[in-house]
Design brief:
Radius of gyration: 24 Å
Distance between the termini: 10 Å
Shape: globular
Strand order of the largest sheet: 1-2
Oligomer: single chain
Strand content: 5-15%
Amino acid sequence: MMNKGFFCGLLLAALLFSVLGETTTPAKEDKAAETTANAASVPTTTPPTTMSHAGHVTMAGKCMKARRHKQLPSKETLEGICTPWSESSCCNVTTAKDIDNTEGSYNFKWSHCEHDERHISKECLNWFRKDLCFYECSSHGGPWIAQESPARKWREERFRNLPLCQSECNDWFAACKDDFTCSDNWYTGFNYSTGEGVCINTTCRTISDTFGNAKNFCEKVWDNSFKVVPNNVTMGCIKINVDAEGVKKNGEVAHKYNDYYQTQKATGGQPRAAAGISVALSVALLWIVQ
């Protein structure tokens, strides 16, 4: 019995030393990632993954399943407002050109209070076009792609809790706060029985009065597609009003979250060191009771 106990002690000490020795720095990073993930309210369920051509599981470079999205991102010669997404795009040239001139999407008008003679401002219109460019063209939203439920005619998937930078949200809200809307949820607040989205509640108020603040506006307008987070979170945040360099930074953020999700999936939600120790304890107990 003494020999078994002595052996188990040595085994546990060796395993513990090995785990801690390998993960001293990563452990700090994992803790920071975990704290940041909690602060950013990352989804509790791991988003769906896709297989790249190389056979590696990746969510960082992915196009969602939707009417105008390509199956896989690729380089496009985009022009106009969507140009920054040219290097790795989920939209084609035709879609990008359409966004340059649109005042809405999928039979929905951003300027939906025209019955009250309220027209969307140029500044606000530009932000929603940028938002649409990100939705249609970005290949860096993969970690936050989730199944659409219930499914809509034009898509099977959507973004959910994508971490939007607080400064980005503030600027978007500032550009649109004096514009008018009839709903605080642009997914559910409209009737499409005529083929085009019509206000269920025909009373229009300013976006500022309707949403109250920037955070509520950015998170609720598209039914929690975005989750507003501080700009200085360790894992980073996404911007939609960007140049080509900003798109690359979005890609870096997406890869960080992708790695975090893959680690969580691989360890069943446990930190890697904790998972290793659990295995060691199990082996030791089995040895002792034999």
